[in-house]
Amino acid sequence: MTPEDKKPLRLAAVGDNCMDVYGATGEAFPGGNPVNVAVYTRRLGGAASYTGVVGNDAHGRRMRAAIAAKGVDVSHLHTAPGATAITHVTMENGDRVLGDYEEGVMAHFRLTEDDIDFLAGHDLVVSGLWGMIEKDLPKLKARGVPLAFDFADKLTHPVIDAALPYVDYAFFSRDGGSPEEWRAFLEAMQARGPKVAVVTLGAQGSMAYDGARHYTQGILDCDVVDTMGAGDSYIAGFLYGAMRGRDIPACMLEGTRSSSVTLQYPGAW
């Protein structure tokens, strides 16, 4: 065990949550990008918290209980009058297809100064495109805490302009495209601020760029049951490696291993 492994590591996940509701079966699974990353970090052996908001409905109560049951700190998970966010999901050939998103109380989520103090006490903070915190990134950056951000597959979204200058680790996802296209894309994104830009490419694996060289990582063979949460578990594995001082290839491999576990069961977690 290395000194980095002995150090207590705390990841703060902040932003959106939602119940993934499968229309064909009526099943509902707690999820949302930052929530998933927090849960997967705990699965990997790290400590994690989740900061966000749920409604005062049954979905909100279930969300809070489920996250806490995974050992994630929910001391800064707020409750507001109204509905918890919902994403409607269908399955097509083993792939989950995201339908309508009902934002609920997440539409009005904003960080408090107490939240920012709490987040700044962690080893790394991660959020994403729908987390509603891009305007608070300068405050967090000024506190010296490393930041990671998932831009998902929205490669031209306005939040990119707001967030990239303050982010240490920028994550994107997409299927298709050539390696040449993705190398050029990563170079352009990394030049705008992040230390490392990463793109996950489904069956094509993942690529990363740190301003000096490009890195690639293939997939690991596994029995795919449901792709829900696969990208988030990759991010969790990558960041858990980064917090422990691993190099980029090792972080990419940890992300791939984490993703391969998630692919083998239904729902995000």
Description of the structure:
The chain has helices at 3-6, 33-44, 58-69, 113-120, 137-142, 158-163, 179-190, 230-243, 248-262; strands at residues 10-14, 18-22, 28-31, 47-55, 77-80, 86-92, 95-102, 124-128, 147-150, 169-173, 196-200, 206-209, 214-217. It is built from nine helices and 13 strands. The strands form two sheets. Strands 5-4-1-8-9-10-11-12-13 form a nine-stranded mixed sheet, with helices on both faces. Strands 3-2-6-7 form a four-stranded mixed sheet. The mean pLDDT is 90. It has 269 residues and is α/β, with parallel strands linked by helices.
Task: List the defining traits of the structure above.
269 residues, alpha/beta, 9-stranded mixed sheet, 9 helices, 13 strands, 26% strand
Task: Report the total helices.
Answer: 9
The helix-and-strand class reads: alpha/beta
Provide the helix percentage.
25-40%
Shape, per Cα inertia axes:
globular
Largest sheet, order of strands side by side?
A: 5-4-1-8-9-10-11-12-13
- pLDDT average, as an integer? 90
Helix-strand sequence: HEEEHEHEEEHEHEHEHEEEHH
Oligomer: single chain
User: CA-to-CA gap between the ends?
Assistant: 28 Å
Give a short account of the largest sheet: 9 strands, mixed
Strand content: 25-35%
